[in-house]
Amino acid sequence: MSKIELIRDELDGSVCRHITHDTGLHIYVKEMPGFTSTHALFATHYGSLNNCFRVRGEAEFSEVPEGIAHFLEHKLFENEDCDAFELYAQTGADANAYTTFDHTAYLFDCTENVYDSLRILLNTVQNPYFTKENVDKEMGIIEQEIRMGLDNVGSAEFYGLLGGLYHTHPVRIQIAGSVESIHQIDADLLYRCYHAFYDLHNMALCIAGNVETEKVLAICDELLRPGEDMQVEQRFADEPDTVAADRVDIIRPIKIPVFTLGFKLPPRPHGIEQRRAELCARLLFETLFNNSAPVFNEMLEEGLINYEFGSDGAMCGDGYLLVSVSGETERPEAVRDRVFAEIRRAKAEGFDRDCFERVKRVSYGRIVRGLCIPEAAASSMMMAWMLGTTPGDSRRILETLTYEDALAMLRDEIDLDKTTLCVVHQEEAAHADDQ
Amino acid sequence: MKETTQHLGDAVELVTIQEPKFSTDVLHVMLLLPYEPEKSPAYCLAMSMLAQSCRKYPNNKAISARLDHLYGLSIGTGTVAYGDTLRLTFSASCIADRYAFGGEALLREAAQIAADCLFDPNVTDGAFDPGEFAIQQREAIDAIRNDTLDLRLFARQRFHRTFFEGEPSAFDTAGTIEQVEALGPQSVYAAYQELLRRASVRIYCVGPDADAEALAPLRDGFAALTDRAPAPFTLRSPSPCKDEVRRVTERLPIQQSKLLLGFKSETPLDIVHLRVFNALFGAMPTSLLFANVRERMSLCYYCVSAFYAEKQGLIVDSGIDSANAGRVEEAVREQLAVIAEGRFEDAALENVKRALTSAVRGIGDTPGAIVANAFDKFRFGEDLSPAVYLERIAAVTREDVMAVAAAYRLDTVYLLEEEK
Known about the structure:
The complex is a heterodimer of chains A (about 425) and B (about 425). Chain A is an alpha+beta fold and about 425 residues long. Chain A has helices at about 70-75, 85-90, 115-125, 130-150, 155-165, 180, 185-195, 215-225, 270-290, 295-300, 330-350, 355-370, 375-385, 395-400, 405-415, and strands at about 5-10, 15-20, 25-30, 40-45, 50-55, 60-65, 95-100, 105-110, 205-210, 235, 245-250, 260-265, 310-315, 320-330, 420-425. Chain A has 2 domains: about 5-235, Cytochrome Bc1 Complex, Chain A, domain 1; about 245-430, Cytochrome Bc1 Complex, Chain A, domain 1, CATH 3.30.830. Chain B has helices at about 40-50, 60-70, 105-120, 130-145, 150-165, 175-180, 185-200, 215-225, 270-285, 290-295, 325-340, 345-360, 365-380, 385-395, 400-405, and strands spanning about 1-10, 10-20, 25-35, 75-80, 85-95, 125, 125-130, 200-205, 245-250, 255-265, 300-310, 315-320, 410-420. Chain B is built from 15 helices and 13 strands. In chain B, helix 10 (about 290-295) runs antiparallel to helix 11.
């Protein structure tokens, strides 16, 4: 018998139902009266980080090629007799999928035939079909996706930063892998990863919008296939408490250098502490460097930065926590020095308390903006499942975060010796910075 | 959903659509006038000035602090050319009043800030504040200089130079570095005044708090303008098809080449027929381009089509290995021929109609889609309200989409190639 938990959001009175299905799948449903659209996500707690693992009964951990979670995502759109897009075409749903560092999700949006689309979603993800021929065919497509990513300046900057901050943690690896690594992938490896991670105990289904819980559950009861709990375990290499490089240079054909300055913080254990640390770091950096901050406007008036400058927020997951600022400038090292100077000053003197409270109001506004959007509601439920928290916890954490919390993080955890400056620039400008 | 339309003055119209289910209100003030590439950079810069300061909040720091206090009320500007018409938009978005801790009337605040920015800018002696102007001018120049940050957009802009040669659409609305450098606080202020005088104005407001009273500051601001002389503009400006296909190749040190194919029609095309055709051809994962050029032939990660309704143009945009450029071009032309000759299954057409139907039914679920749909009615001069739109999609036949495909001729092939 599935267990049902009602989770009420006191902000708008909406209710989310969390069902722990007999198969081990976590199901979240938010019925949104008045909406025509439905957004559904079927996700596994498996992303690009999970490259070294073992399942129940295995003594040894084994490594798989980089990019295999993403490759698997592509291939699960293809069943034995047709591809998933052809099936969704018969319901009118708009389907897609994506892979992140720590999860892979298959999704659809629709305004009609929601239950037929749900059947397609559940059937597709539960019916892998990998052959040498269809794996080889996908190589060319993914290779072009990787090459497009290599040309993407934002992506180059992002992975350049992660490669500078982390020595061994797999967050430094591109989600899609490399052209070389994907050529090590074959059907057998895909099946091995599929069976390890696409275990319903390791998955969640999140649906929000014009949907009825009972009908969702009836389809789940019919289509979900019970399987053994694989109890997959990950292993990450020990990550030193230093950065791998304090400066990373990347050459791309752009006229004005772009940069990201990242700060490596101590990671948090899996769970709500990760969310709390991420929110705290974001509030801190937005307070110090947002558009109303003194240092932002000084640098703007001096012509050192333009409006592209700002905090990128924080990223937190198993084994990593970082916060960063980024922007465009001819003089990235000068910007870094000013950012460092502002951090030193704030560590000693504190920072603008009113600004901190304003930034909290902005964060509250962001949460409110997502309340009445089915896609945002489904994503929010999925993120809560990933961290083992409850939908709505972000707002509750935000309410409790104080100026003192942010100041303590600044003083205790922001270490100017644990930073990476990643600069993307044209070749000829490589050594012209700030001399 | 409650929709009202009000005339606020000479070529100034306000459309409010009240929808209680949303948690946000959005406001768009759209200024429409003929697209004159020599004037556009000054107009764009004027709009940027308006979104960064005003007399009441004379610099970025002051206005940002106010916006943050209002739960991250956001303002911004945007520019787009619809054929030979330029649309400049001042936008604001806020959370719904019911979520404000202190019971603030946030949409009213948004309208007041929009009015402050649009009608009472930070001006002294007939010129924008020189310090603020210098920042915005540099911002505009940086954006033009760093045009290769987004290679897909860069390729699209370079493609336009040839595809629309001799027409305003050949030029980017932001202009060139030289054009922006030649501007000053006075000339941009003059451009701002000209905008308020010459532009036709459409204001759209959608959300739970959207009513005319909340927007009184904007209504009063437009009512106070005395020397309005709206310039006529056209939303139909077909681009002539070249006698011979023009081929342009440029090179950059990049990993993936961009191949853009431009087609034109010399006959006007029904907007709904066009949208159904585009969905069948290349706009969706179920389209022929995706199914064949990507999935069957593995030639690209993306290969998508889009149309320029006002110009009767069609573009296919793909990211490829340049060694395959010839094969991709051939495959794209073949899929166009497949539609023109009716070599597709009825089920394929029904599928894309179903997908479009689903999308249209969802228009009422986001403020942005509601605004886009409301503006479409004006843009195309037809009733495209969701109910009518659904009927028109249902009525599209295979002959209709075959006629659209048959009308297109290849005009321009642009390749941005990796340097060897």
